[in-house]
Design goal:
This protein has about 150 residues and is an all-alpha fold. The chain has helices spanning about 1-30, 35-40, 45-55, 60-85, 90-115, 115-145. It has one domain (about 1-145). Helices cover about 80% and strands about 0% of the residues. Helix 3 packs antiparallel against helix 4, helix 3 (about 45-55) runs antiparallel to helix 6 (about 115-145) and helix 4 runs parallel beside helix 6. It is globular. The mean pLDDT is about 90.
Length: about 150
């Protein structure tokens, strides 16, 4: 019985490690052209400014920055949903990043109270996910125009 619990626990930890590592690899992968600045400007997204503000943001401001990222995430999800209707359904990578965003959101909520530096790292990765989705949307739009 104890052996089974230990094996299940280790397996769960290894799965979490694999999941986080895979998400970080997806975010590090560079595409042919970076459209994030154009998409952010066209849709009034604030994830680029959030990245800049994170360095010197006090603990009290982290909730506001998270709200901005959540707003951007919803807008980009909506944009992707409309582009998927024109092209194809979401990829497994996008699903993984959506799950990662939600888990980081929860981690940031906990970290804001207990470990602000951990919350800042979570917000940084959340902004990278929003940027990745914004760039994916622009790549799909460029592909349909071509």
């Amino acid at each position: 019985m104890l052996t089974s619990i230990v094996i299940i626990g280790i397996s769960a930890l290894m799965f979490c490690y694999w999941f986080r590592y895979t998400c970080s690899l997806i975010l590090r992968t560079e595409s042919g052209q970076d459209y994030t600045t154009e998409v952010a400007a066209a849709n009034r997204l604030s994830f680029l400014s959030v990245r800049k503000e994170l360095a010197e943001a006090p603990q009290e401001q982290l909730g506001e920055l998270q709200s901005k990222l959540d707003r951007d995430f919803e807008i980009v999800k909506c944009l992707l949903r409309h582009s998927e209707a024109l092209e194809r359904s979401g990829s497994p990578e996008e699903l993984m990043l959506r799950i990662d965003y939600q888990s980081l959101k929860m981690w940031c909520w906990i970290g804001r109270r207990l470990a602000p530096s951990s919350a800042k790292r979570a917000l940084e990765e959340m902004s990278l996910i929003v940027g990745h989705f914004a760039n994916s949307f622009a790549e799909r739009a460029a592909a349909t125009r071509a």
